[in-house]
Structures are given as structure tokens and as C-alpha cells.
Amino acid sequence: MSDVHASNLRMIGFSLPALGLNMLVTAVFVFLPALYAEHRGLGAATVGLIFLLAKFVDMIAAPIWGLFMDSYRTRYGRRRPWLALSVPILVLAISMLYRPPESATGFYLFIWLSTLYIGWDAWTISHTSWAMELSRDYDRRSRITGLLQVGVMVGGILISLVPALMERMGSPTYEETASAIGWFMIVVLPLTAIICLLSVPERATPNRPHLGFKKGAAIVLRNLALLRLLVANSLLTFSTYFVQGLFVFFVSYTLHLEERIGFILVFLVIGGLIGLPVWVKLSQNLSKHGAMQIAVTAGAIAPMLLLVLPPGSVVLTTAAFLIVGLNTSANEFLPRAMMADVCDQDHLQSGSERMGLYYSLLQLSSKFASGIGIFIGFSFLSPFGFDPALGSDNAEDALQRLRYLIVALPVVAYAIVIGLMWRYPISRERQRKMRDIIEERERMALRSSTD
Prior knowledge:
The chain has 16 helices and no strands. It is mainly α. The chain has one domain: Growth Hormone, Chain: A, CATH 1.20.1250.20. Helix 6 (138-169) packs antiparallel against helix 10. The longest helix is centred in the middle third of the chain and has 32 residues, at 138-169.
């Protein structure tokens, strides 16, 4: 079961669905909350609660998708059919969410947000599992994940350019901007899926043998590297979504730059794109967990710039968010690259490759943390004295407390991640030893089957 190698052009084509990850993240967590909280009158606390409740649907769907994909092979593969199936689900949900009727209720938001999450799970788990199964090499996995992360960051830039260009050409309403974002994704997501499906084959892997729920769960729960990675990923995701959820309010009202939201958001994403080759290089020269410690240290220091940003300065604000964005690519890239190595440890114990399950667990930790991030961020607004409906008319003290809020909690989360990565058990040398054992087992199994 050798690695899958393809030309650079085909690998770029294969990586294109990664564009959709940051598109969906940015579109859902930056633009949707404000659309429903302010422009459909649901209120910040209600929208925060709905996002949290929809996350429970998301958290149920993710492991179901992962287990299903691992267990069954179709004539077209274990991953490809489900990427294709996710497209119509996403297109339907996006069309409903980004063009809501004036009478849209909390139930309307919950139903279509939950539908979007179900399609999003199928999209991301199938594509990421497929990508990580292309190779078992420690450093090549980093390169593949890095290529996907380039797609993630470019997707974020593209989706951010939609409102930025609309701002340059006129004065669109928030509803018009949201509708344009929805149409952009409706066009781009199916196109990237088609190109991916035609670019690279899956690596041949056997169907997962039946372990039984009790035994399979016990192996997962004993995997301490997995548990540490999941907690770290949750904290990184919480920080990312907490900041993105409050981004519109902070930039619009504390900094008085409501007309430059899209422009500034582009630089936040560009910062991640600039930082990505640094994190890839560090993961290869040091280790993946060492690179993560450095990245989160930078991530804890950079937000301090937001505490001293003067209102009304476009240049200083874009520069600050460019710096803040440098570590955001590490928040996505490193946990995914590390999870592939965690799967090798599971393979040794379970005797099967359960990449879909493990990536669904990574998704699960991200989903829970993102829901909590939005819920806490929006729930804290009222106790901090900030009312989104008042906008710039909030008291100056409330606007300043919003500034402190968007900085403090991510810094605490990053500090915990630094500790979790201390003496992380899966190094490059450990992964290579595990890979050698797995490949020897497969060679012995192949010889036994041919005798």
C-alpha cells in the first residue's frame, strides 16, 4: 500500500476543496452572527445560543461520518463519494442562510445552520482523511497539510475580497453583502470538488475490521497523545472563533472602521498565509509540536497590539491584524498534520487505519470549541455593557471592555496550549518506528495471503 505520488499541478487540483474550509469559517462565524443578531433582530444572546445548539448537531454528525467512511468502501473509494455528496447539501444550506426572509426566526437559523454543518462535516472529513492517507511519511504529511493550508488561507482571502470589493464599488447593505458571499460559495464549492475528484486517486486501504464499540472506544480513550492534541486543538479553535465572532463589532464600533471590515479582514488572512511557510519549515527542522509551541507563543503576544490601536486608523489596524494573523495558519495546519501521526499509534493498537474517525474527532473538538467561542463571546457582551444594536452609540467604557475581551481570553488559551505540547510523546523518530512496524505487518499479511 505505497504512497500516492502525483504532479504538482494535480496536487494543487486535489487541494482545492481546502478553499472551502476558510470560506465557510469566515462566512459563517464573521458574517452570519451579525446578519441574524442585528439585521433580523434575533439579538446577540439568542444567536449565540443557536450557534451552540447547532454545534450539538454538528458534533453528532462528525463521528458518524468518520466511522461510516472508515467502515465501507464503494466502487469509487472510501472518501470520494462523500465529498461529492456534501456539495448539494452545502449549496442548499448556503442559499437559505445567506438570503434569509425578513421573518426569519431562531428556528429557521437553527435548521439551516445544522444542515450546513452536516454537509460541512462530510466535506472536510472526507477530503482531509483522503489527503492524510496519501502518505505515511512524517515530513511529507506536513508538506501535504501545508498545501491544504495554502488553500485554506487563499479561500479566506477570496471570501474576504467579496465584501472588500463591494465596499470599493459602492455602499452595499449588510444583507446585500451576505447574499453576495453566499452566491460566491455556491459557485466555487462545486467547482473545486469536481476538480479534486478528477485529480488524484485514493491510496488503497483495507476496510476497517470490526473491533466492537467497547474495544474501539477503549483504544481511543487510552491514546494520551490524542487527548492532549484534542484539548490543544479545542483551545486554538476557541481563540480563532472567539476573535472572528467579535471581529465585526470590534472593528466597526471600537475602532470606528465599519466601512473597512472586508479590507481589514483580508489582511488578517494574508497574515496567516505569510506565516504558513514558517510553521511548515519549523515543523520539518524541529518537530510539529515544537513548531506549535512557537506559534502559540507568537499568538499570545501579537494580540497585545489590539489594546493600543487608536480608533479610525486604517493603516495601523491593517498592520496589527496582519501580525495577529501570522499564527492563524498554524492553528489549522499543525493539529491536522499531528493527527495523522496519532492515527499511526491507533493503527498499531487497533490493527486498522481509522483516519476518518480520528479526523472526525479533531473536527468534533473544533466544532465544540467554535460553538463555545461564539456563545461565550456573544454572552459576555451584555455583562460587559456592550449592546450590538447600539453600535457606535455604546458608552466609551463598553467599547473599551470589548477591546479587552477580544484579547484576554485567547491569550489565556494559548498559554495552556504551550503546556500541553511540553514533552509531547510522538516525535519524528517515534512516528518512523511506528510506520516501520505497520508496513512490516502489511508485508507479512500480504505474503500470508499469497502462500
